[in-house]
């Protein structure tokens, strides 16, 4: 196990190094740079600014500088936002995380419950209904369903706020603040959950159906175990095993933000910021965020491997 | 839902020429922000993409007069309950609130409320006193002397004096200054020596007494008055750590601004809102409404206006938007023409476009009325000169309107030697006449391409459009020279000279007409408005005939605001900052 871990960690470092180089070169070679878009500047001023920002140096040298700073904990200074990249992360990522964490949690809970029931009652009216509903939810574009809900629930009925994270100008603290945030996140969480639910429910349903056909389930039933026990102790545990792999992959998504949802609901998340910084070629922010996601992805993969080992003793690492 | 239009907009605070780049997507052109600061838009969209405006002939259906709310009882309770706070949507302030050091124009909107200027501009763009009660210009037009009002204070109560003004100008000549301000290009005497480190101070800047400061330029420049007469940074606050060559420390102060404007910053919530409170030390007296909030509204601002979460928003002046706004009942609507114009940059290096007649033929042959006015539902009007209809220099005298006339266009092409070849495409010396067009992805670009394709086909020109979703890529392509026409929109123009900016900032390098340079410099050599007007008229006539760029359209927008707000006016040059201190809630 420990040799395995050392090996894995070493691979991770190599992967991250290669990824950072590749990402840096890709960003640097997209046409235009941070200065290009500012068409009000004279050519001399543009050259001066490129000099100040170091954009006139060769790509590899710029990469070296970036890497060196990163090793010293300095992820640079966002050119467009005029703030340290890490401070920006801190300002925005937690908002994205809040939405993602709650909706991921809901998605998993609902998907497991619905998946198990519809597998158990395969081809029943419930199963059919759920499948129709799920396909419908999966095929709806998120911006459509988001705007539709805003129109109905926020603009027409005025039950929920149309966007943002707090009521504008609110000085609420403590419990009142919590209540405000919950009200504001209700709509985006519903939309995100609806969108994520489909594939996960189908995944659990088919896993469960497979497991229910196994011999050990028949044995359990033959032993005279209660159906509930068969279902939840014997079947579900085995059906969930492959899903553990998915948990690791959720990690980057938890922090990555959602561009569309954040934009529609005016949520102060990182997704919007990232998209914008691409349009502006704000290299430090782009690089910092992409690497952050890359690190999370690598860690997530490792995490799911280890979890798998923990959950299933048959797996050797 | 990020709109495909990636509009890179550079806004500068009216006087202060703060350069900023930010990407702004206007969906239904509803953008919550006010062009409080000059909003310089490198509008990728085919010019006129957004909603242009009309000077003389008001298109049917467009709103020409302010509209007053019909039924204030429809005002949502949320808005009704706000008694001392006004909320305005602003696309995306980033938190860099120090003037001259901002990259985003939205930050410029914020700082335009936090800082007052020495000199402001009135509704026509004519300089007017603000912190400076008067100024003198020497006879050689090189030395400007500003006389500050007495008893000026920053919001913390500390005095504002000529020393602060000198400091503000000086740091922009520091070699570490990396902002986009136009002050460095004013060529203050000794600025270069200071930047190179050979002088301890900028020679041209002289503090005469605490209320008087003069600045000497190397070359006359009529825009210097407003450019130099911009925001003032407190030397005691922003300058206490300053040493030559080091300005990084200012970044730490971005979120803790100390200004002298009508409002001061209460709190900045990144991605959410910027909260202001009235500044009791504002030189015109404390603003009438205690609190003001810029709410970050990246996407569609309709939902916030409808539910009363914002009090003020801007929309493209399409018939559809205006009808919808009127139907709300509780908003007043104010028609507005931004101080910008749309144009197509012409690649003058290419043989086929070097010829004035070909450029004129394109102007005649493009159905600009359909593209910019009709398809935009009246939210635009046609431009024929490099100035906005609201500018003091605007004129239609002796200006060819280039009414859609395909026959005339064909005739001009014939004259220029381009004859129709075998496949219907015109040729000259065996070379077919093709136009490679670049535009930014947007609905308006789509309209342009659809109409232009037909128009060009009728003229016998082969039209090859190319659309970019990313503004920087478009600009790179233009810099590479691989284009014939490319659509842009100017940034906000304060001085008429700004309308010719693209010929001096390195973008357009191939138009060397000595007459143009002579007139351009002549217009800058004096600060007398009447004299300048006459020169600009001549310049506009020259450009209208020569067409070194092809003029496309003006935008037209409307401001919709909660009917309870009184005394609201919007200046095309300084946005709402000018009248905001007077706003009251009924």
From TrEMBL, chain A:
GO biological process terms, semicolon-separated: transmembrane transport
Topology class, membrane: Multi-pass membrane protein
Tree of life domain: Bacteria
Keyword ATP-binding: no
Subcellular locations according to the entry: Cell membrane
Keyword flag Manganese: no
Transmembrane segments: 9-28, 92-117, 129-154, 185-204, 239-265, 285-308
GO CC, alphabetical: plasma membrane
Name of the featured protein: Diguanylate cyclase
Species of the source: Paenibacillus jilunlii
UniProtKB/TrEMBL annotation, chain B:
Location in the cell: Cell membrane
Name of the protein in question: ABC transporter substrate-binding protein
Signal peptide limits: 1-20
Pfam families named among the record's database cross-references: SBP_bac_5 (PF00496)
Membership in a protein family: Belongs to the bacterial solute-binding protein 5 family.
Highest taxon, organism lineage: Bacteria
Entry-linked InterPro entries: Peptide/Ni-bd (IPR030678), SBP_5 (IPR039424), SBP_5_CS (IPR023765), SBP_5_dom (IPR000914)
Main location: membrane
CDD domains (UniProt xref): PBP2_NikA_DppA_OppA_like (cd00995)
Gene Ontology cellular-component annotations: ATP-binding cassette (ABC) transporter complex; periplasmic space
Keywords: Signal
Region (Disordered): 24-63
Family matches, as PROSITE patterns: PROKAR_LIPOPROTEIN, SBP_BACTERIAL_5
Gene3D superfamilies documented for this protein: Dipeptide-binding Protein, Domain 1 (3.90.76.10), Dipeptide-binding Protein, Domain 3 (3.10.105.10), Periplasmic binding protein-like II (3.40.190.10)
Domain Solute-binding protein family: 127-506
GO biological process, one term: peptide transport
Entry membrane topology: Lipid-anchor
SUPFAM superfamilies: Periplasmic binding protein-like II
GO MF annotation: an example: peptide transmembrane transporter activity
Composition-biased stretches (Low complexity): 24-33
